[in-house]
Amino acid sequence: MGVLANGLGDRVREVKVSRVLVAAAGGYLLLMFIAPLAMPEGTVPELSGRANTFDYATASGWGNQDNGEGASVGHDQSAHGGTFAWTELNPVWGFVYAVGDLNCHQKYERSWKINGNQMPMCTRDVGIIFGFVVGAALFGWRGLNRWTVRDTFLSIFPNERLEPVYLSDRRMTAMLAIIGLGLLPMAVDGFTQMLTDYESTHLIRLVTGFAAGLVVGWWFSSSLSARTKYFGDDPRLVVLPADARLVTK
Fold first, then answer.
1. How many angstroms separate the first and last alpha carbons of the chain?
2. Coil, helix or strand for 166?
C-alpha cells in the first residue's frame, strides 16, 4: 500500500480489491452454469433479445413478442420454445437471468445450452467475465499501488522489465497498448460479424471475450487500488522502476 509500495509485503488494499472483484464476478460466472443445470430441463427456451435492456422480464415483454424471423434483432419467440420470464423464477435464478437479459443480446445461436436450458449470457460474455476474474486475480497476485492508475497497472511486471518503459517515459503508451491488444481481437471479430456475412464460432467468441475481460479486470483492479492517501499525498514516497520519481504539477 503506502511507503512499501515497491515490495510485496504491504499489499492489504490491493489484495482486498482483487478478492472482492474475483468473488463478485467469479460468483456470477459460477451461477451462470449452475442456474441452467439446476432448473428443470426446457425451462429456458431459445432466446433472442437486445443488449442494454430488459426483454424477458415478463411474459408480455418485448422478447416474447413475435418480432419476425430473420430480423436483425429478436425473433418469433413462440416458434422457439415458447415464452420465458425470469421474474417467474426463484429469486436467485431470476437474478442470474435478469443480469444476462440486461447486459447481453442472448442470441440462442451464439449461446451454450446446459440441461436443455439456454445460458443467461452468450459465449462471448462468458469469456469476458472469465477473463475479468483472471485479470483481477492477476493484479491481486502482483499488483501494487503506485499512486497513478498507469503505474499501478504496470506494477504486475518485474521492475527490471519495466526499466526501458520508465527510462523513455512511455508508461501511458504501454498501458494503452496492452489494453488495446486485449480489446482488439474482440472488436475485429464482432465488427466483422456485424458488417459482413462472417459468423464467428463459440471458441473464437470465448477466446476473444477472455482477452478483453482480462485487460478490463486488470485495469479495473488498478483503478480501484491506485490511491494517493496511502503515501500521505507525498509523491516522493512512491518507489518506481529505474529510480523514476513522480512529479506533481
1. 23
2. helix
Q: Would you say residue 31 lies in a domain?
A: no
Chain-centre distance for alpha carbon 158: 25
User: What tens digit of pLDDT does each residue of 150-186 get?
Assistant: 999 999 999 999 999 999 989 999 999 999 999 999 9
Q: What is the DSSP string of 176-238?
A: HHHHHHHHHHHHHHHHHHHHSS----HHHHHHHHHHHHHHHHHHHHHHHH--SGGGTT-GGG-
How far CA 222 is from CA of 57, 59, 164, 208, in Å, comes to 35, 42, 21, 22
Same domain for 142 and 183, yes or no, is: yes
pTM of this prediction exceeds 0.85: yes
Q: What is the 3-state secondary structure (H, E, C) of 33-59?
A: HHHHHHCCCCCCCCCCCCCCCCCCCCC
Residue 118 phi/psi, 5-degree rounding, is: -65, 140
- Cell 486488470 sits at which residue? 218
Chain-centroid distance of CA 37 in Å reads 23
200 & 92 share domain: no
Q: What are 75's three cell numbers? A: 425473433
